[in-house]
Structures are given as structure tokens and as C-alpha cells.
Amino acid sequence: MNTKRELIDVMNDAIEFALSNLHTATIAKVTGVQSKTISVQPVINRVYQGRSIALTEFVEVPPVFMQGGGSHTAYPIAVGDYCLLILTERCFDRWYGGVDFQSPAEFRMHDYSDGLAIVGVNPLASAITIPSVIQQTGDTNQDGDYTRQGSLVQQGDMEITGDFILNGDMQVNGNIICSGTISAGNFSGLGGGDMTSTSDIVSQGISLTTHTHSGVDTGPGNTGEPQ
Hints:
Layout: H1 3-20, E1 25-33, E2 38-42, E3 46-48, E4 51-53, E5 58-61, E6 66-68, E7 71-73, E8 82-87, H2 93-96, E9 115-119, E10 202-203, E11 206-207
Antiparallel strand pairs: 1-2, 1-8, 2-5, 3-4, 6-7, 8-9, 10-11
């Protein structure tokens, strides 16, 4: 009997068993979306005693968003999205409950129960092409101030609720439709085109619709209103 050989085999088996239960990160698919957590299921099976075994669904997994200094960027998450499921080395239940610098609530290590999901990984067939500039696809909701330097090219409609202040010139190639009042100091340059209004235009207190003229050769008094 080769006692040394048997000892090495036992040690190798123990190491292999330990490594097989040392969970670090894996690819998963989103199976459910809650208000602040998601449910995911790993898509890479485990192999146990020669059998391929699909892992179960993990629930209440916190997603990772980019944030800092009170600002954050959050993206919609949908069932069917892929994510990188990262398994932390210790139980984070107490931290997730709002308590820092405490011993773990349980002494499990590298466990499937302690996962964070980074959503946005894709297989080759649906991988996102790396752009040369920042590219955004989808709707956006902006809360807070927005400062921009450089040109802006807009394709599609733009709707603004609130005041719009422009310091500089504005060139419009097309029609301007106004359902309210236009107040202006100097207003010039229609580019040789026509200006049409379905309501009154008032300039320096004089109505374009109801004004009259005096001192004309049509007789005493003022003229009638424009027709």
C-alpha cells in the first residue's frame, strides 16, 4: 500500500471539494424585478458526480448602479437581462440592514446567499458594439441641473416644462407654433418668409387686430379696424 500516494489523493480531493464550493462570480439571468432588488438564476450549471445540475433561483439580489456624492445613474432592468453575479466573501445581511462595522450575522463564506448583480453583460450574439463616443439608447429622466459644453445634435421631438432662457442667437429652419404670448424686445429677421398668427399680435401696446389710424385722407376721425 502506497500510504504517501493515498495521502496526496485525499488532500487533492479535499482541495477540489473546497474549491468547488468557493463561489466568486458567475453569469446569471434576471428572472424577476422588484422595487429595489432583483431575482436571478445562474445560467452555468454545476457538475456534481458527473451530472450537470442547474442552480436554483436567487431572490432579493441587490443590483449595482453607478453612484457617488448624492448622484446616481440607474437603468431599467427587465426579465431576461443577463448580469454578473458577484458573491462576497462574507455574509452582508447586517450591512444591508444599515449597520456597519459588525461581525457577520452568519459565518458562511463565498455563499450564494451574498450576491450583488451587475446587470449589462451579454453573450456574443447580442453584445453591444463599443462606440467611439458615449452612446445612449432608450428614454432618459433627468433630475437635477445639466451643464453641457459643446454642440448638441437632436433628432426627434423635445418637450420642455418650465422656462427656457436663451443667451445668444436662435436660427429656426421651419415653422414656429405658439399657443401662448410672445414677449420680445427687438424681433427681426423672418428669413424672407411669412409670419402667420391665429391670435392677436401686440407691439408697444398697439394691437395688430384692433388698431386704427388717424390723420389719413379718408375724412375726419380715425379709420376703422383692420379687416
